[in-house]
Amino acid sequence: LINKLQPGSVQKVNDPVQNWHKLENIGNFLRAITRYGVKPHDIFEANDLFENTNHTQVQSTLIALASQGRGGDTGGVGKGFGGYAEKQQRRFHPEKLREGRNIIGLQMGTNKFASQQGMTAYGTRRHLYDPKLGTDQPLDQATISLQMGTNKGASQ
């Protein structure tokens, strides 16, 4: 495969008579695709293919190799890919960066339909009411009875 993409990448291809011949072919292939530009973290281990164990990593390697396709003598195979993405460095003016601090992105969600029903205003006191004292019940929502123990189904 690599010799089709880049002729002469692997000089010697063994006839797979014995296991070490097969392993040597796989090793030669892996070294050649590294030189071709496939990153080491995308390359499978020789035993993954030889022992027929990690098909996913072998497939990932072939996909990475396909993304490196350069056309060459293959009649256009791989044209349009061009390999790994290059780093795109961007520089913004400081005033533009400051403007961005005032924008809430769509990824942060929204507070539509948010409710603090039953909650008191921040900073105000919540008074306690004890009905045993015989005083009149308060008329506001900021006072809770000692027997209630809750905030009457308040929701956040």
TrEMBL record:
Q: Which UniProt keywords apply?
A: Actin-binding, Calmodulin-binding, Phosphoprotein, Repeat
BP terms from Gene Ontology? actin filament organization; actomyosin structure organization
GO MF, any single term: calmodulin binding
**Gene3D superfamilies, A to Z:** Calponin-like domain
Q: Which residues form the Calponin-homology (CH) domain?
A: 1-70
Per the record, GO CC terms?
actin cytoskeleton; focal adhesion
PROSITE patterns, per this entry? CALPONIN_1, CALPONIN_2, CH
As for what it does, the entry says: Thin filament-associated protein that is implicated in the regulation and modulation of smooth muscle contraction. It is capable of binding to actin, calmodulin and tropomyosin. The interaction of calponin with actin inhibits the actomyosin Mg-ATPase activity.
The entry's family comment says:
Belongs to the calponin family.
Q: Which PANTHER family match?
A: CALPONIN, CALPONIN-1
This chain belongs to the protein called Calponin
